[in-house]
Here is the input.
Amino acid sequence: MLCGPLCRFLWLWPYLSYVEAVPIRKVQDDTKTLIKTIVTRINDISHTSVSSKQRVAGLDFIPGLHPVLSLSKMDQTLAIYQQILTGLPSRNVVQISNDLENLRDLLHLLASSKNCPLPRVRGLETLESLGGALEASLYSTEVVALSRLQASLQDMLWRLDLSPGC
Here is the structure.
């Protein structure tokens, strides 16, 4: 039979043409669920919380709340937090850091659905130079970072309902 591969392709065509894209509403719901999961993980780590507006000397590189959060600003903020958390030796933050990577992937899907693909953000370029400051105050860095991350995530959750721009 000469049409072997062609016949098999034509036989599979109805199944291949029926593949549907993931509805954007599902991606948005998954994003919100993951944010709630991360906030719960942060709550499970028993630390003293710090106000997101409170200034802590030497930890100014940890982002606070932003007045306008677009999808690109959300991704940039999460990249910074992810980089900070991966620099901490605490085993408590490993899963949160992994969740932030997944959350960033979901934000990229949301952005591409709005025809505004986000470039991969690298995070803080100066974090390596802060190595001495981080080592001197690991616990404080973890407390402040988790507290501010939690506040940022709750803000992102609220803003996702408002359909943020690129």
Notes: The chain has one domain: 23-162.
